[in-house]
Amino acid sequence: MKTVDAKGKLCPQPLIMTKKALVGMDENETLHIIVDNESSKFNVVKYLEDNGMQVEIQKNNNLFEIYVAKKGGTIEKSIPEDYCEIPTESKGDYVVCVKKGQLGDGDKELGKILIKGFFATLSDISQLPKSIIFVNDGIFLALKGSIVAEALKNLEAKGVEILICGTCLDYYKKMNDFEVGQVSNMFDILEKMTKAGKVIYP
Asked: What CA–CA distance (Å, rounded) separates 23 from 117?
């Protein structure tokens, strides 16, 4: 049995890895695929089922283990990149706009503990935000070495768009230091905020 370890991989990598492994396998051989987020599980399973494969899914702590036996199907002719979708039921109609590097206006050390807990918990709730926007000194949470960098990577892997204010990065001279997300501008940020059902300011 072959194994595809796609933990931490963003779409379309888990799909491409899955196709490559299946193409190189013998008929009836079983492939074991490991992913660590809901969107990758959703995409890989849909890809396999749409191409004539039967799958078995097991959840082990924070990991999804997918088993598929190569039996006929149309995998060789498939285009895995076409399956980079996020299940709509996992996304809420809201965005999160982060304006500072802590949660709340009281003690700063407590605020840092709370903001770390906020993002760690956010990735586990049933309705993820469409986008997370970082402005002003909130951008420091998206920089290298941030206390929430891993949580943000996890959210991004689940399909949450992370936008960082480019003007703010320039102002603080941090343009080359962001760890996660993409540089954005005020037009795009306002588009996301005005089209969202609501905006949360932690």
From this structure: 42
